Amino acid sequence: MNTINPTNGLPDTTLVKKAMKGTVSRFSGGARAMGQLLNKAPNVLSNEINPSQPHHKLGLLDAIYIMHISNDFQMLEAIAACLNHSIIHLGDFSATSDTELLDLYARWHGEIGDVAREVSLALADGRISRDEFDRIRQEGMEQIHWFFEFQARLEALIDEG
After folding, report:
1. Which residue among 78, 105, 121, 155 has the highest number of C-beta atoms inside a 10 angstrom radius?
2. Over the stretch 27-65, which tens digit does the pLDDT of each residue have?
3. What is the secondary structure of 55-102 as a DSSP string?
4. Where is pLDDT greater, at 68 or 88?
5. What percent of the chain has pLDDT over 70?
6. Which are the contacts of 143, defined by CB distance < 8 A and separation ≥ 6?
7. Could you give the angle at the alpha carbon of 81 between the alpha carbons of 79 and 87, nearest 5°?
């Protein structure tokens, strides 16, 4: 469920800001390389993705370009989550092997384990902090992603004949 900021009544975008910074940081060459591809000064891009620079904002089109260039869709997943939605990647699964299915099944269950681990760690002291909740939600979103990836691969194997 999305969290609403009680001060302004808008969705909490903490995960989106973390995803923006993470996506650019993980990109080979970081903000400098990504900035060049966007025709944007690296310091401007760095300011736009810096959560402690609230007056600098990354534009929607630049966010789309960054996701496309980096092939990293964490920002999209975070945007969907802060609006109480989820996304599902629709890939081409026309040729699926048994090994791929088993790998996806194992990844999905690995993510379920990650959710359980985060819940267990969060409850160890009898309370849940905002950061702990955000980690649980992030792991939950990843688990949902891998379930739908697995489901899409299975669906590609349906024999209607």
Report:
1. 78
2. 999 999 999 999 999 999 999 999 898 899 999 999 999
3. T----HHHHHHHHHHHT--HHHHHHHHHTT---------SS--HHHHH
4. 68
5. 94
6. 108, 111, 112, 114, 115
7. 80
* pLDDT tens figures, 84-123: 888 877 666 666 677 888 888 898 999 999 999 999 999 9
d(CA 87, CA 147): 12
Other Cβ atoms less than 10 A from the Cβ of 94: the count is 7
In the numeric block, the tokens 């929607």 are attached to 60
Number of neighbours of residue 141 by Cβ within 10 angstroms: 19
**pLDDT value at position 85?**
86
pLDDT of 76 above 60: yes
Query: What distance in Å separates the CA atoms of residue 109 and residue 114, rounded to the nearest whole number?
Result: 9
pTM of the model: 0.61
Round to whole Å and give the CA distance between 130 and 144. Answer: 21
* pLDDT score recorded for residue 91: 65
> Helix H segments across 3-73?
14-26, 30-37, 42-48, 60-70
Which residue's entry shows tokens 């939950």? 140
